[in-house]
Amino acid sequence: MKIEDWYHSHFETQLRGRYIAMDHIYPLLDIYKRKYEISVPGLSEQNRDIPLIKIGLGEKVVLGWSQMHGNETTTTKAIFDFIRFINQSDHFRDVIDKFLEEYSFYIFPILNPDGAKLYTRENANGIDLNRDAQELSQKESQCLRKIFDEIKPLLCLNMHDQRSIYGFANGCPATVSFLSPAADRSRTITSSRKIAMELIVKMERTLKKYIPGHIGRYDDSFNKACVGDTFQNAGTPTILFEAGQFKGDYHREKTREYIFYSLLAVFDIIGDPALPLNYKEYFKIPENLKNYNDFILRNVKLTGTSKRVSIAIQYREVLKNEIVVFEPFIDEIGSLENKFGIVEKDAEGAEILTIPQDNLTVGANISEIIDKNDESVIYFQKINSIIA
Predict the structure, then answer these.
(1) Looking at the domain assignment, is residue 386 inside a domain?
(2) Range name among 112-126, 190-204, 301-315 with the lowest pLDDT average
(3) Alpha carbon distance 17, 227 (integer Å)
(4) Do 204 and 105 fall into the same domain?
């Protein structure tokens, strides 16, 4: 059986969409507590559980965490896809048993349960936990650091979502991006960074089979307040995962699949472990550019002039009754020659009306764009189905 066939029939269907909070994963934790060690080593600022799952009994200790930013949920779904894969008994048992013998994988599925509940990047106190690695001012940060110090991992996996504004010069959006964080301001290629880079090369090789041209890496400017930089500085190889946009997949259901394959590659469950790895190949992975928008309307004629411009629209993610709704707003107006849209249309020199009307200003909310002279021509319309 191919791994893709297994995935498409067996991924964790109890987790879907963009909104994932503790209530969504408790039923899964109840199932897996019979087989894996599940503990609660800390509580959030609002006294919610911060569960930790341990999988395997091996000497290679790996620590991972998802939803450090509460509104970044794609990797949480992929983690439970991975656990479901490890837990099944019908396929791939040789590589699964080998993984369980060699590794002890500790994973926080939701490190920021308060932010997850509110669907915010920050925790309940408005603190970005990924900028709290030095001060350790928040209970969530203290919990992560406590486990890091106790288990002394050989590798850390820092798992996030990235916005749909990232892409590459080739016109592709950044669907999955990685980073081997800097360990100091000089961005020294330390031994721990090399290990992280080699593992990223391994994952990139796997992902190229599925999404060639859609894999990137982040700028490695050093920030000692960031968790990855702090752990890398401590000598522990750390990899930043960033789950991004794949075409119109705003539910990030395809991207979770690619994160799942990435995890399998890290643990040598897929891929050829005999192939040599060279950390220098990491630098051949293209760096993310902020060159994307959710929608671009080209060749719009401005009223009263002959000038033509392009209009970029971006979505804000808004939680309404535990549903994430995507609210469009005007992000930029101009030539936008070096920008790409996940969806693009050409107004062919037409003048337009916006609803709300006469609101063609950057930052303004917008629900519809129509042809000023033919209102039956709709260039853009807020789509209620883009909901997760």
Answers:
(1) no
(2) 301-315
(3) 27
(4) yes
Q: pLDDT digits over 110-155, tens only?
A: 999 999 999 999 999 999 999 999 999 999 999 999 999 999 999 9
- Indicate the number of domains in the chain: 2
pTM: 0.96
The verdict on 274 and 304 lying in the same domain is no
Clarify whether residues 9 and 110 are in a common domain. yes
CB neighbour class for 278 (10 Å; exposed up to 12, middle 13-18, buried from 19): exposed
Q: Name the DSSP class of 167.
A: B
Is 133 found in the same domain as 212? Answer: yes
Do 214 and 351 have their domain in common? no
Give me the CATH number covering residue 355: 2.30.40.10
pLDDT tens by residue, 53-109: 999 999 999 999 999 999 999 999 999 999 999 999 899 999 999 999 999 999 999
Residue 93 lies in a domain: yes
> Collapsing DSSP states into helix, strand and coil, what is residue 37?
strand
User: For the chain, how big is the Rg over CA atoms in Å?
Assistant: 22
Residues acting as catalytic residues: 242
324-357: pLDDT as tens digits: 999 999 999 999 999 999 999 999 999 999 988 7
Q: From edge to edge, which strands make up the β-sheet containing 340-346?
A: 323-334, 308-320, 292-301, 340-346
Burial of 39-77, coded b for 16+ CB within 10 Å and e otherwise, reads eeebebbeebbbbbbebbeeeebbbbbbbbbbbbbbbbb
Instruction: Give the residue numbers spanning the domain of 197.
Output: 3-284
